[in-house]
Amino acid sequence: MKNHLTIVDHPLVQHKLTLMRDKTTSTAGFRQLLREISQFLAYEATRGLPLTHTEIETPLTRMQAPIIDGKKLALISILRAGNGLLDGVLELVPQARVGFVGLYRDEETLQPVKYYFKVPHGLEGRQTIVVDPMLATGNSSVAAIDMIKDAGAKNILFMCLLAAPEGVARMKAAHPDVPIVTAALDDHLNDKGYIVPGLGDAGDRMFGTK
Ligand code: URA
Question: What CATH number is attached to the domain comprising 172?
């Protein structure tokens, strides 16, 4: 992928995102829309996967037909909101290997602290897609990608639903080799670190915890 930031401006994605932003949208509706959008984002995020050919037989003839080359994709969800994107992508790429990164923010240092980390073996040879719906300050995404690189990943892409300019800049500074695929680049972060206009707390809206 050539660009550092790709915005998926397909009308269906933009329409569904508007429904997600609307505060009257239900928890079930929000979750369903996120699942649907995740598949459009995944379509873009997987565009660069290498293909090879294999011989198959159709009912009419033999042919060399394209299939995805190399090791299976790795999907890594940043807990907990990343799971809302993960499910839809897994429907499209059911053989993908799956990992999870759990981080919380230390109230004193304000730095992300790891509480869970389990990722597939052999990340060196896999295209790795890290999923988290909201790229806000970029602190947790940058920390998660640091850990994923330490675990061996070399070919990483970050997929989110909404990005703030601050988060994009932070990611570009820390991980210029990691392209970002998102549905929208919003205006700014407020003083509590929420994306504006945004959609609120993605985890709460997805799981009905507020
Ligand atoms: N995380 C969220 O869930 N929402 C934001 O606006 C920012 C970070």
Answer: 3.40.50.2020
Maximum Cα interatomic distance, the chain, rounded to a whole number of Å: 68
Assigned domain for 60 exists: no
pTM of the predicted model over 0.90: yes
Residue 14 domain boundaries: 5-51+68-207
Ligand 1 midpoint to CA 92 (Å)? 26
> CA Rg, the chain, in Å?
18
161 within ligand 1 shell (Cβ under 6 A): no
Q: Cβ contacts of residue 153 below 8 Å, gap of 6+?
A: 74, 119, 123, 124, 126, 128
pLDDT tens-digit readout, 150-199: 999 999 999 999 999 999 999 999 999 999 999 999 999 999 999 999 99
- Looking at the domain assignment, is residue 111 inside a domain? yes
62 is catalytic: no
Residue 187 lies inside a defined structural domain of this protein: yes
Domain tally, the chain: 1
